[in-house]
Amino acid sequence: MRSGFPDFRLGSVLATSFTATLTERRGEAVERIPTPQRLVDWLAVSGLAVESCTAAQLDLARELREAIHAAATATATREALPAGAVQVINDRSVQGRAAAVLTPDGERRWRVADVEDALSVIAADAISIISGERDGKMALCASPTCMAAFFDTSQSRTRRWCDMNTCGNRQKKARFQANQRKNSGGS
Ligand SMILES: [Zn+2]
User: Which PANTHER family match (predicted)?
Assistant: First the structure.
């Protein structure tokens, strides 16, 4: 918790880190970008720092987030992509002027001027994982209160949880407790 807001769940894939700004979608949902400033904070830690964000830009961001979630979920379950979600992702992708720049150390950085630019980078990242262009597989988290779509890049493609530290851990703990009950003889 920082300044009273829920922490971010940051992963290694930009698009699904972004969809993870709303967690426990099938349980008691936690909104991790509740204010425009929190979106600014999230963008900063994600390499897409912008100066400011308006309420309307936050709405755009959340619309994109839900579109990515819907399209990624459809991909994971091998269903047809929802047309509305595809439209939103494409709109955000084409309406930004982000540029990739190379640092003297040979790293890639994004140059973005505003939230729209940052969203275009996220939309393009979503396109690259949903289209199957990148090495990995879309999958759904095995936690019934989560079911977040995540991008599995493990060798065996058998990752079960969106995040080992939260969903994975909770599941392990639940199993452990169930075993303890069994071993203590029950009645
Ligand atoms: Zn999960």
Answer: BLL6575 PROTEIN
Sign of CA dihedral 129, 132, 137, 140: positive
Positive or negative, the Cα torsion across 24, 148, 70, 51? positive
Residue ranges in the chain whose pLDDT is less than 50: 1, 187
Q: How far is the CA of 187 from the centre of ligand 1 (A)?
A: 33
Q: What is the residue whose two structure tokens read 């994975």? A: 168
Q: How many angstroms separate the alpha carbon of residue 154 from the centre of ligand 1?
A: 16
CA of 130 to the centre of ligand 1 (A): 18
Q: What is the pLDDT of residue 79?
A: 97
17-54 confidence digits (pLDDT tens): 999 999 999 999 999 999 999 999 999 999 999 999 99
DSSP 168: I
Q: Where are the domains of the chain?
A: 14-183
The CATH number assigned to the domain with range 14-183 reads: 1.10.3300.10
Q: How far does the centroid of ligand 1 lie from the alpha carbon of residue 138, in Å?
A: 13
Taking the centre of ligand 1 as the mean of its atom positions, its distance from the CA of residue 44, in whole angstroms, is: 24
54: CA distance to ligand 1 center in Å? 29
Q: What is the DSSP letter of 134?
A: S
pLDDT at 165: 87
Q: Is 129 exposed, middle or buried (0-12, 13-18, 19+ CB in 10 A)?
A: buried
